[in-house]
Design goal:
The structure is a homotetramer of 356-residue chains. Chain A is an alpha+beta fold. Chain A has a single domain, classed as 4-Layer Sandwich (L-amino peptidase D-ALA esterase/amidase). Helices cover 25% and strands 26% of the residues of chain A. Chain A starts with 27 loop residues before the first strand and ends in a 6-residue tail after the last helix. The interface between B and C is large, with 38 and 38 residues.
Chain lengths: 356, 356, 356, 356
């Protein structure tokens, strides 16, 4: 079950309808899970900013590097041009190139793109080599194309799915998680949705309660540090009319949400935030007869509620990934336990996170 | 009293002896408080990386911009050269220039600097215009020079002192706060010390407990946002032998500590982190007969414990600034209450932050 | 005389009417020259993006750091918010703080700013300590305010004036220089204007001709390097409707123009580019009842001609500063010669830069 | 023939022995040219910082983004950690992913890397779609592995080879080019070597002479802009003991060299500079029993000659790529002429670049 089903609340802002990235109108998610034999525990998650031809109708976007020990492909073009022209793909570290090739194939094949000779594929990853035979590179282009094709709006699968199949977070089974916030009308009424692929360490806190410490999994300093490495990919979507500069500022705030779960962005962590605006009025046509484009943008002064929404949704998405993940056995019979539910709920009750 | 005196603990790492930035050997702090008449509530805090001639013996340093709505002077040279050649001064927004002039005066006058023609003064600020007649620009060069001269090691005054005299944090009286962490020998035994000037908003959490929400000061969203602006200056010192690149990475982590107190780095916030290594072996001579310098530097792989220490010390320094601050009346009879101690402790007990 | 009066042409694009930054509608320049006694050779140059209240009607702006060994104040706020709220002031290295104070005074005093408590002053500098008693800090707030008040459109004084009074460039007398480009209607018809304060080294090239080498001033490598330090402040204005992201890209190109004159952005150089759009439709109101602002912005695809215009105008502005500067004697009887006109023209003829 | 064989000299510093990137001790280059049938004009160039196991002995490195309209993979990890763990591969835009996969294969297979689960492949590209059937993605992993295996020191092939097989520069045939500078002993005696893949536009200048204009290829503004797009990959190697921060500063200067050839870093250009130090004393072991590493690093003050060397070698490498490239017919019978030698030499004589 998800966090809120246990009566746990993160932050002060209300969630969107599904409490998922797909609460942002137009956003679609598709996932392919590779859970085969004893050694393969990996997969692909695809996030589509809209259902149309992304190359022909780019979306405003930004990338913020929380900690760059990772292989995110495509970041420099997004940062330079302020837009995104492909699905966002998440997978494992050694499958980034394969996913890029798939995104190129996908883009070249879309009707209208017959003459396209340049594609910027945005592909992120975390390292699932603890549970998955990552050196075997089991993700194929076909898997990636399938994830793109399966993408749909509505509920998003969480836990051991897609790119989260083999990830580990705070020493427990991590995975895919999502959450959203919807600002009240007085603050603009905008929605912020977040999807994460969690594979990092630190000292777990749930809604502020020191769960990691009390579970004694992290009580020995030595162990804390050994477990700290890993990565977190964070995708932030909004329907607010925000330009690339302010999208980058939103992306930067997502790291504060990660910090609130106890993450420390350790040396070995590839912590990247990709943010985009799905607002239909901000799409950038690939080609245009016009020299200029007229856009209606949110003023800087209105950004703070979106920052708060980003922080809250990121924190909750990470926690959802833990609550929805399940104990798994993978490569070399390595077993990673899910967050121990009973004990965790007890701790949360003790700390009054769950009201008695 | 400080946080720990109430039995509140932040994080998992032990503090240094004084739990202050001055636990880092060589670091000195001097503060001048301007609390005059009904309208002047401001001051100056000076942090000296070492007691010698900083221009002649620069320290490796970095600056990270959490949110750049602020007037930090001197940042680009630190970022380019990776070193710092002056005391770090904190004051109010409209007194940055005066403080720069004082630092220039100080540097030009130091023995050995008779021919110096260029000084990079690093001066940060937050805006105390709610309690202080900031437009009156009451800080003079003399005040700044006095703060530098008073700088000493040992305990650091916190709360309504120096540059924290008139600041407001989470709707309560903020100010100066400090904290430190000392890594166990197995992790290198290094010390990280943090000093903050707190003047920002969000939804206050203390050791994870939702104090802001429960005090109902922040229960109305409208109010949350109105109060969110402001700034936080964060100074991070370490004795670890860390170069500028890794000092910047440490600085970046300080923002996670800010996030854990409930800060959101709002649009109007000038959130800057200045970090430096006080390790004597890393000092950069202004002039040298040698073309090269031999240094012993920490490997990237060893940084994670320092990241964790930075996050913890920043969180605790911010909270110390609140616990040590006192109710004050300032400009236009504006009154800002200190954190209500009784109620806060009750909340912390309810949430098991303070063990019953 | 200016470069073009000798028949020297830079680049392929036509200049604006005045071949000056003031070709960009609304831009004003005011300069105060301090040429007093034997030791004072310094001054102030003020560039106003428009003649109104800049704090109430900010302009979109960016800052690019070519090499950060300098003291530019105010850069981080411009980079964060993408706008500029004050006149741009250029002066000497040790007078930046005084100029900031003057800009604060100016802003606080402007009608409509009675309640303003925060001002981001953008003040750049180069070091004129070779000719000027810089340690004497002879620039006063009054001088800066006078430069702001004197600002006007029309022709711009060049050479040994304002902030260029005591600067040295390529071993010759440098100073203030300006130039502009006006795109043909087919490329949008926009104007780009540049103003520079030149105080840097390298191996001078004029329209590609190796003037520095042939004058043998730079023939000894040792000497080349000794002379390489210094700085260049570059201000780029345009009437094109360009947002902060693309303004930063334009700013970045100005460094290519500096490179074409033979500059190398040496270690000790503070090379900063400030760019802004003076387009009236892009002004950002300090306060607004609206949550959003509608703007018409140039597409990325249209930026290349503006990049080329920026490069050309920067190159020519630097050369104008040399051609208009005059031999000067300053501090300690130091004499710096102007570019030797006869010899230079001979070289340019030999290299067919000036058609025979 | 190369530039210098015509008596053309760039800059004031002497070249290394081969005037090639391989003048930096240890650096190796391998290239595979795909010139097949009528439609395939592409290839791979591999640059190895040293001949050993790069993953086990990483080199200090940096990446500077001149203009980010490109697909360089691996940049964020280099920027974060300051080191490089793989060969540098250059190829065409749509083959980056394939090259990444090859680098991963190469690294996983190297003796000693049996347990490696994470590889950061640094792969750059330019778009050769004008002459090459780029959508056909004819580069295979095998080609990339072959380029790595063929890598050797000594002379470097230039022009229509490797990743430069199908590129176009200033409207003429571009390709691979290289050059080097060796500082005199008084400036440290260090070598800087540059290799470029040229595929960009602007207004060609050769040693300052306006060749592009005089050839009238660029006389119509409209045409200038149409031809401006494209990209330039620049690899800068040095044996100077320079850390990642100063390597980034060197990388930044390479763009000034590009500017001096008439490049404008147009909107559609992917202009990236990768720099590394091949100094054996700075290698970073993948694993170490030591917490620290002792290194002898060049002081900031000594960087300017290296900046100048980088600028000069970049300018000359670009020009070498043009002089060594040959007329080619490719995809759709598109023909791209080499730089017209006779006319060019006449222009250079007229402008006294070639002494009569």
């Amino acid at each position: 079950k998800r966090l809120r089903e246990y009566g746990i609340k993160i932050g002060v802002l209300p969630t969107g309808k599904l409490n998922a990235i797909t609460d942002v109108a137009g956003v679609q998610v598709g996932q392919v899970t590779l859970n085969k034999g004893t050694e393969v525990r990996t997969g692909v998650s695809a996030i589509l900013p809209h259902a149309g031809n992304l190359f022909q109708e780019k979306v405003l976007a930004a990338v913020y590097v929380g900690n760059g020990f990772g292989k995110l492909a495509g970041s420099s073009q997004v940062q330079e041009l302020g837009n995104l022209e492909s699905p966002i793909i998440l997978t494992n570290t050694l499958s980034v190139a394969t996913a890029m090739n798939a995104v190129i194939t996908h883009t070249l094949q879309q009707p209208g793109n017959e003459k396209v000779q340049s594609v910027n594929a945005l592909v992120g990853e975390t390292n699932d080599g603890g549970l998955n035979d990552i050196r075997g590179r089991h993700v194929t282009e076909k898997h990636v194309l399938e994830a793109i094709q399966k993408a749909k709006d509505g509920e998003v699968e969480e836990g051991n799915v897609g790119a989260g199949t083999g990830t580990i977070c705070f020493g427990f089974k991590g995975g895919i998680g999502t959450s959203s916030r919807k600002l009240p009308p007085s603050l603009g009424g905008y929605t912020v949705g977040v999807l994460v692929q969690t594979n990092f360490g630190g000292v777990l806190q749930i809604a502020g309660a020191p769960v990691g410490e009390e579970l004694e999994r992290f009580s020995f300093r030595q162990q804390i540090m050994e477990k700290a490495d890993g990565s977190c990919m964070i995708v932030v979507a909004t329907d607010a009319p925000v330009d690339a500069r302010n999208l980058e500022r939103m992306a930067k705030r997502a790291m504060l949400g990660l910090g609130k779960t106890g993450g420390i962005a350790s040396n070995g962590s590839g912590d990247y935030v990709i943010s985009f605006s799905a607002h239909p009025g901000l799409r950038v046509p690939y080609e245009s007869r016009e020299r200029t484009q007229t856009v209606t943008l949110l003023r800087n002064d209105e950004m703070s509620p979106l920052f708060m929404a980003t922080i809250e949704a990121t924190e909750e998405a990470i926690l959802n990934s833990l609550f929805k993940a399940e104990t798994i056995v993978g490569k070399d019979k390595n077993k990673v336990e899910a967050l121990p539910l009973e004990k965790t709920l007890d701790i949360l009750k003790k700390h009054h996170v769950i009201k008695p």
